[in-house]
Protein backbone atom coordinates (compact mmCIF):
# COMPACT_ATOMS: atom_id res chain seq x y z
CA UNK A 1 0.00 0.00 0.00
CA UNK A 2 0.97 3.65 0.12
CA UNK A 3 3.57 4.86 2.55
CA UNK A 4 3.36 7.87 4.80
CA UNK A 5 4.22 10.87 2.64
CA UNK A 6 3.74 13.37 5.42
CA UNK A 7 0.75 15.36 6.55
CA UNK A 8 1.16 18.06 3.90
CA UNK A 9 0.53 15.74 0.97
CA UNK A 10 -2.50 14.06 2.55
CA UNK A 11 -3.92 17.43 3.53
CA UNK A 12 -3.53 18.62 -0.04
CA UNK A 13 -5.27 15.53 -1.43
CA UNK A 14 -8.21 15.84 0.94
CA UNK A 15 -8.72 19.52 0.13
CA UNK A 16 -8.60 18.77 -3.62
CA UNK A 17 -11.18 16.01 -3.27
CA UNK A 18 -13.52 18.31 -1.37
CA UNK A 19 -13.47 20.90 -4.15
CA UNK A 20 -14.27 18.25 -6.78
CA UNK A 21 -17.67 17.49 -5.24
CA UNK A 22 -20.52 19.83 -6.14
CA UNK A 23 -21.92 21.30 -2.94
CA UNK A 24 -25.30 23.02 -2.99
CA UNK A 25 -26.79 25.21 -0.33
CA UNK A 26 -30.51 24.55 -0.03
CA UNK A 27 -31.27 28.20 0.76
CA UNK A 28 -29.25 29.53 -2.17
CA UNK A 29 -30.74 27.03 -4.60
CA UNK A 30 -34.25 27.90 -3.41
CA UNK A 31 -33.50 31.60 -3.81
CA UNK A 32 -32.20 31.03 -7.34
CA UNK A 33 -35.33 29.08 -8.25
CA UNK A 34 -37.49 31.94 -6.95
CA UNK A 35 -35.59 34.35 -9.19
CA UNK A 36 -36.32 32.11 -12.19
CA UNK A 37 -40.00 31.86 -11.26
CA UNK A 38 -40.42 35.62 -10.78
CA UNK A 39 -38.47 36.42 -13.95
CA UNK A 40 -40.61 34.08 -16.04
CA UNK A 41 -43.83 35.41 -14.51
CA UNK A 42 -42.80 39.02 -15.14
CA UNK A 43 -41.74 38.30 -18.71
CA UNK A 44 -44.98 36.37 -19.29
CA UNK A 45 -47.02 39.37 -18.20
CA UNK A 46 -45.00 41.79 -20.32
CA UNK A 47 -45.11 39.40 -23.30
CA UNK A 48 -48.86 38.95 -22.91
CA UNK A 49 -49.50 42.67 -22.91
CA UNK A 50 -47.26 43.19 -25.94
CA UNK A 51 -48.89 40.28 -27.75
CA UNK A 52 -52.36 41.66 -27.01
CA UNK A 53 -51.48 45.16 -28.13
CA UNK A 54 -49.90 43.89 -31.35
CA UNK A 55 -53.05 41.83 -31.96
CA UNK A 56 -51.48 38.39 -32.21
CA UNK A 57 -54.17 35.74 -32.32
CA UNK A 58 -54.17 31.97 -32.23
CA UNK A 59 -50.92 30.20 -32.93
CA UNK A 60 -48.95 33.42 -33.42
CA UNK A 61 -49.57 34.42 -29.82
CA UNK A 62 -48.31 31.10 -28.48
CA UNK A 63 -45.26 31.22 -30.75
CA UNK A 64 -44.58 34.70 -29.40
CA UNK A 65 -44.81 33.31 -25.85
CA UNK A 66 -42.25 30.60 -26.52
CA UNK A 67 -39.92 33.13 -28.17
CA UNK A 68 -40.19 35.33 -25.07
CA UNK A 69 -39.43 32.31 -22.84
CA UNK A 70 -36.40 31.41 -24.98
CA UNK A 71 -35.10 34.98 -24.66
CA UNK A 72 -35.72 34.83 -20.91
CA UNK A 73 -33.80 31.55 -20.65
CA UNK A 74 -30.85 32.99 -22.55
CA UNK A 75 -30.92 36.05 -20.31
CA UNK A 76 -30.91 33.91 -17.18
CA UNK A 77 -28.02 31.82 -18.49
CA UNK A 78 -26.10 35.00 -19.28
CA UNK A 79 -26.86 36.35 -15.80
CA UNK A 80 -25.39 33.13 -14.36
CA UNK A 81 -22.27 33.82 -16.48
CA UNK A 82 -22.87 30.59 -18.44
CA UNK A 83 -21.91 28.59 -15.34
CA UNK A 84 -25.23 26.84 -14.72
CA UNK A 85 -23.90 24.07 -12.51
CA UNK A 86 -22.58 26.62 -10.01
CA UNK A 87 -26.07 27.91 -9.30
CA UNK A 88 -28.47 25.09 -10.24
CA UNK A 89 -28.48 21.32 -10.26
CA UNK A 90 -29.13 21.05 -13.99
CA UNK A 91 -29.95 22.76 -17.27
CA UNK A 92 -33.61 21.81 -17.08
CA UNK A 93 -34.10 24.11 -14.08
CA UNK A 94 -33.11 27.22 -15.95
CA UNK A 95 -34.55 26.24 -19.33
CA UNK A 96 -37.92 24.68 -18.41
CA UNK A 97 -38.83 25.57 -14.85
CA UNK A 98 -41.88 27.82 -14.63
CA UNK A 99 -42.90 27.77 -18.28
CA UNK A 100 -46.38 26.32 -17.69
CA UNK A 101 -47.10 28.68 -14.79
CA UNK A 102 -46.00 31.59 -16.94
CA UNK A 103 -48.31 30.45 -19.71
CA UNK A 104 -51.36 31.11 -17.54
CA UNK A 105 -50.18 34.66 -16.79
CA UNK A 106 -49.41 35.19 -20.47
CA UNK A 107 -52.89 34.15 -21.60
CA UNK A 108 -54.53 36.34 -18.95
CA UNK A 109 -52.61 39.45 -19.98
CA UNK A 110 -52.73 38.53 -23.67
CA UNK A 111 -56.52 38.61 -23.76
CA UNK A 112 -56.96 41.62 -21.47
CA UNK A 113 -55.53 44.36 -23.75
CA UNK A 114 -56.86 42.61 -26.84
CA UNK A 115 -60.52 42.65 -25.72
CA UNK A 116 -61.02 46.44 -25.69
CA UNK A 117 -59.40 46.68 -29.12
CA UNK A 118 -61.83 44.16 -30.59
CA UNK A 119 -64.92 45.50 -28.81
CA UNK A 120 -64.49 49.12 -29.87
CA UNK A 121 -62.86 48.68 -33.26
CA UNK A 122 -66.15 47.75 -34.97
CA UNK A 123 -67.87 50.97 -33.97
Automatic annotation (TrEMBL):
One Pfam family in the UniProt entry: EMC6
Q: Which residues cross the membrane?
A: 62-82, 94-115
Q: What biological-process GO terms show up in the record?
A: autophagosome assembly; protein folding in endoplasmic reticulum
The way it spans or sits in the membrane comes to: Multi-pass membrane protein
Q: From the UniProt annotation, give the residues forming the signal peptide.
A: none
Tell me the domain of life.
Answer: Eukaryota
Q: Where in the cell is it found?
A: Endoplasmic reticulum membrane
The reply on keyword Hydrolase is: no
> Under what name is this protein listed?
ER membrane protein complex subunit 6
Amino acid sequence: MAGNNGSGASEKKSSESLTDLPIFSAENTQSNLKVIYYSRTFMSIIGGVISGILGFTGLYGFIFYFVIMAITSVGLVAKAKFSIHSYFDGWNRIMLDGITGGLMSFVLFWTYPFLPLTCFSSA
